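Thread: "does anyone have the structure for this chain?"

Original post by V.I.:
We have the sequence but no experimental structure in hand. Need at least a predicted one for the grant figures.
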Amino acid sequence: MERSRGRTRGYLTLDFLNGQREGAEPSASLWRAFQLYREALPALCEGAGVSVGNFAELRARFAVDRRYGGWFTLWVATPDGRSAEDVYVGVPARRWRKGRTRLEAPGGR
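Reply from O.Q.:
Generated one for you, tokens below.
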């Protein structure tokens, strides 16, 4: 994990459109998987009937905490300003549904 001012960055954000990362240093195998996914993204989009150009943002932030274990947030936005943010928790990942519990969502969402 990367250290910044003596603190561990407990997350990894991957930007699938720009090939950038923020936060913790990914393992070599995870970074390679990310690169392969980015290369396959146009074909995946085509299979879903859209193009990569339909996205202005396509990011995921992965983290682990004591309360929820592993969780991640997905951000998707279109060039015309529509956007969505969804949180997934656990293994296998399940979508965090607001309103089902009084507990705070992972990452303070």
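V.I.: this helps a lot. The longest strand covers residues 57-65.
O.Q.: and The radius of gyration is 15 Å.
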